[in-house]
Design a protein that fits this description.
The complex is a heterotrimer of chains A (about 220), B (about 60) and C (about 250). Chain A is an all-alpha fold and about 220 residues long. Chain A is built from eight helices and no strands. The chains are: A mainly alpha (about 220), B mainly alpha (about 60), C mainly alpha (about 250).
């Protein structure tokens, strides 16, 4: 447990000290929101489902960058071998990476939500708090997926392109559920209507965190013949 | 509804054409595999004939 | 792989396919509302069944590969993914051919079509991963992980897409003939067609799989032969002969 926390602290400290990646990630989220407003047209800003959709697009893109950041902090110096030689269990490495990715994504999403409140004239209140909960569920699921797949895509020739190719189709059910839940939350729908979508999101999170935890060791080892 | 016959025909044709193309794809790869196998066999034959033409080596 | 097994499977699928075609065009009655074009369904549904089954096979092969490490499981998984992709594409194309005359649109966000489309995207990701990376055991492991995770995702995709579609009845919904088969002849035709496509898939899978297996073994042989040739040029003939005999 101590080693895990140490590893997460290392990633976070590295990040917060330079602050470069976090700022870039936040900036990217904001710019995605801007692009979507112009792409969807001014009338879209009056509709709550446009806000929901925009937030999830921002989540996916910031997620893809957040995961590659968390994994690449090692590969740049070949430190991944050092990590593997340490007594740290690969599954624990996964949890640490997941934690770091998740925190990066959460920061980027928080910025996006603030901007959405502004651009789409959302009511600030209990709805926003519930929305934050939905977005965090989504961020957790995507972080788990991306952390597992980033380790794969890093080792292929297509590199950065491979991650979205693999991650986006797999994320579709969470995207569908997340956007619906977000949109319903923002329009003040009764909790009964929202809960079925939340259940799907929760199931997705459980599935991918577990799968990532169990399978990460197969993805991170060196070429053993 | 007779124009719908065109869609029916198109669907079935595409299905069979694509399956046929895939079979062709596998067949061509199989042929290249056999060619590689023949190359390997000839290299092996050449190697063993080269070795048997040096009978001067002492028995192990 | 056993030549006679492959050939008999090929013959069986040919016969079953001919039987299915006979039933589809000469035996089964036309459906009341949609008319003659509904007959696309008798290929469309089995194509979907095979596509999903093949995906399951990719995942199961992946599990065995990670567990046992024998490349035979990786070859099976890759062959299943390739064949599955063919059938998945055909399912989507036939769905489009069916949607256009009935609904006037080349594509509908019907829950089954949408789910299969997501499956198609996942197949595409897997095949691109294998195509864009070298043929190493590590990449084979990557493929196994992707196959397993994607297959685990499929149930959630089915549930979420179905829920998504029932909330939007305004968008075109295609009534899949699966719920409207009144005549027992329709069920019989569907059954035969399912068998025919399963046999066809098994045959294509076996063909591709045996070719991949042979290629793997050939690569190993070529390597040993190269070593033997190098040895023959450097070492005394007696020792080299030993290596060459080992390579044959």
């Amino acid at each position: 447990m101590g080693a895990l926390a140490a590893m997460m602290r290392k990633d976070l400290r590295l990040e917060l000290r330079s602050g470069r990646s976090t700022i870039a990630l936040v900036a990217l989220s904001l710019l995605i929101m801007v692009v979507l407003v112009f792409a969807l047209g001014a009338s879209a800003t009056r509709r709550v489902d446009s806000a929901a959709g925009a937030l999830w697009v921002a989540l996916i893109f910031s997620g893809m960058l957040g995961a590659t950041r968390a994994l690449n902090s090692e590969s740049e110096n070949g430190c991944i071998r050092g990590l593997l030689l340490s007594p740290l269990d690969p599954a624990a490495i996964f949890v640490a990476k997941l934690g770091a990715s998740f925190i990066f994504m959460a920061i980027a999403e928080a910025a996006a939500v603030l901007l959405a409140i502004l651009f789409f004239n959302l009511d600030v209140g209990a709805g926003i708090a519930r929305l934050a909960g939905v977005m965090l569920l989504g961020a957790l699921g995507f972080a788990a997926l991306a952390t597992l797949l980033a380790a794969i895509s890093e080792r292929t020739r297509a590199g950065d392109l491979m991650l979205p190719l693999l991650a986006v189709p797999m994320f579709v059910p969470a995207l569908i559920a997340g956007v619906k839940a977000s949109s319903l939350t923002l329009s003040g729908a009764p909790p009964g209507a929202i809960s079925q979508w939340i259940r799907i999101l929760a199931a997705f999170d459980v599935l991918f965190v577990t799968a990532g935890y169990l399978l990460f060791e197969h993805v991170v080892g060196e070429d053993q013949d | 509804m007779s124009d719908h016959l065109g869609y029916l025909f198109a669907a079935y044709t595409i299905i069979f054409v694509v399956i046929f193309l895939y079979v062709m794809f596998i067949w061509r790869r199989q042929k290249s595999l056999e060619a590689e196998l023949r190359t390997l066999e000839s290299r092996l034959a050449e190697l063993s004939s080269r070795l048997t033409s040096h009978p001067s080596a002492p028995p192990e | 792989m056993n030549r006679t097994a492959t050939n008999s499977l090929g013959a069986a699928s040919l016969l079953l396919m001919l039987a299915a075609l006979f039933m589809i065009f000469l035996y089964v009655p036309s459906e009341a509302e949609q008319g003659i074009v509904q007959r696309i369904f008798y290929f469309h549904a089995p194509l979907a069944w095979v596509a999903f089954m093949a995906f399951g096979l990719v995942a199961i092969s992946g599990i065995f590969y990670l567990w046992l490490g024998d490349s035979i499981w990786d070859d099976l998984g890759y062959a299943a993914a390739e064949s599955g992709m063919v059938f998945c594409t055909l399912m989507l194309v036939s769905g489009s051919m069916w949607a256009k005359p009935i609904w006037g649109a080349w594509w509908t966000w019907d829950s089954r079509l949408t789910t299969t489309f997501v499956l198609w995207l996942m197949y595409g990701g897997y095949l691109m991963l294998r195509a864009m990376a070298d043929d190493t055991p590590q990449v084979a492991r990557f493929g196994a992980v992707v196959g397993i995770v994607a297959a685990l995702d499929v149930p959630i995709v089915i549930v979420s897409v179905r829920l998504w579609r029932t909330i939007h009845p305004a968008v075109l919904v295609m009534r899949n003939g699966g719920h409207g088969l009144e005549d027992p002849r329709m069920l019989a035709t569907l059954g035969v067609s399912m068998l025919a496509f399963t046999a066809l898939f098994a045959w294509l899978l076996l063909l591709r799989f045996s070719e991949l297996r042979a290629r793997t073994r050939l690569a190993g042989l070529a390597q040993r032969l190269a070593m033997a040739q190098a040895a023959a040029n450097d070492m005394p003939p007696g020792a080299a002969r030993g290596i060459a005999e080992g390579a044959s």
